[in-house]
Amino acid sequence: MLNKNDVIPLYVQLKRILRSQILNGVFKEMDLLPSETQLMKEYQITRTTIRKAIAELNKEGLVQQVHGKGTYVRLRETKDTVWNFQSFSDLARRHNQKPITKVLEKETYSKDGDHFLKLVRLRGLKSEETTTWMTIDTSHLPLKIFPNLEANNFSSTSLYELMRETYNIHPHYTNLNIEPMMSTPLICDRLELQEEQPLLRSSGIVLTESNVEIERIEIIYSPNFKFKLSQYIHS
Amino acid sequence: MLNKNDVIPLYVQLKRILRSQILNGVFKEMDLLPSETQLMKEYQITRTTIRKAIAELNKEGLVQQVHGKGTYVRLRETKDTVWNFQSFSDLARRHNQKPITKVLEKETYSKDGDHFLKLVRLRGLKSEETTTWMTIDTSHLPLKIFPNLEANNFSSTSLYELMRETYNIHPHYTNLNIEPMMSTPLICDRLELQEEQPLLRSSGIVLTESNVEIERIEIIYSPNFKFKLSQYIHS
DNA sequence: TAGTGGTCTAGACCACGGT
DNA sequence: CCGTGGTCTAGACCACTAG
């Protein structure tokens, strides 16, 4: 299970195990996670380490710790529609739906001597017979970092999985600006909106752990995408 | 300094001390906080407790821990323009400006037999000779919880300080929806905007630690208010 | 009362940054 | 090399929840 000699900290290893178990349905909504004492025995590590892993899952909104009762799995909690466009497939799973991606544009271009791939994708959720479009994602990706990326079919492959598994590059941090904007006829058409209306838009960059810029992105959100924000007040 | 018998955890006490020192200028931008070892000696508590306090300040974006170097004070960091409307005066201090509040409406009303205060405030930042309007805040406050609240002059008093100090009620958690909207002539007039344009708006509730609803709020953001979002990608 | 998570101690070893 | 923060151990006591 855990590798005590790995460079990856134990609490990160545990966190990943628990997260994948939750997202893959080993634990279901409202289930209790094994207690911290049980996890101590199961993984042979101390409670401090376990608590650090669970605390981070808590921060992500995936579980909720309740004093005296236990740690609950929270799949469809308040925080599920926040900014985690990054894990669109997780978002879908949380809604018990399937993620759908339609590639609208895919072209390479040059700028300042470097080559890039521009990728425009329409993303949505599908349940039974209805499809709900959620966002239009525009990505600019440096081919110097991702050679031959344009050969991929992005409608069935997750961009970030591709980065991690094919190129061994791990998206780590994103820096975005959020702005309002008016819809355009093209956007209305793509998102299947009946009338022009104000929308939310975010744009920014994605970095690796060593602060290498690996993507510039713009995301336009359909009104179907409900932004919720929960935060603690520092005092 | 710290009271080991207080019901308030030591790490919370320490966090509050450090935060107020940072915001009051005892430590300045780019300064190093005392090292964890120094803080151990100074406060006579273990490193674990100190690290918990600093980790939370880190999460708030007030400090940045750097391996091998120390913990830096970060006043004007990326996260400073995020959703922390709550601490408008801190936001101002971080920008080296003064917070300004103008009361636009103040009236009591009844609904379902309960009495409320409706408060509309225009909020901005002032530096030297220029004033920049940032938000229009509309609050609905239950007078059952805050008796006689309407007697206050809100242009010079912080609403949350009032809650804490006069009523001993501590805002703890907020749950908001974020939406785009079109400006109206009234809003343009109040925010001194030249033309109609899409804006951001958030609305929701503020709760205490025991989940008592103490405020309903709506905030309309001027384009001067730049929303930035920084987040880690879970993987 | 038994079991849970919340806080805290007093250590240890490590990886990183700069001298 | 030393001082910094990062991880981890093996305990302890407490507060909360529920039967």
Automatic annotation (TrEMBL), chains A, B:
Keywords on record: DNA-binding, Transcription, Transcription regulation
> For the HTH gntR-type domain, which residue ranges apply?
8-76
BP GO annotations:
negative regulation of DNA-templated transcription
InterPro entries linked: Bact_HTH_transcr_reg (IPR050679), Chorismate_lyase_/UTRA_dom_sf (IPR028978), Tscrpt_reg_HTH_GntR (IPR000524), UTRA (IPR011663), WH-like_DNA-bd_sf (IPR036388), WH_DNA-bd_sf (IPR036390)
GO MF entries: DNA binding; DNA-binding transcription factor activity
Report any Pfam family annotated for this entry.
Answer: UTRA
Gene3D superfamilies documented for this protein: Chorismate lyase-like, Winged helix-like DNA-binding domain superfamily/Winged helix DNA-binding domain
Which CDD domains would you find in this protein's record?
Answer: WHTH_GntR
- What's the superkingdom here? Bacteria
Asked whether the UniProt record includes Transcription regulation among its keywords, one would answer yes
State the name under which the record lists this protein: HTH gntR-type domain-containing protein
> What is the native source organism of this protein?
Lentibacillus populi
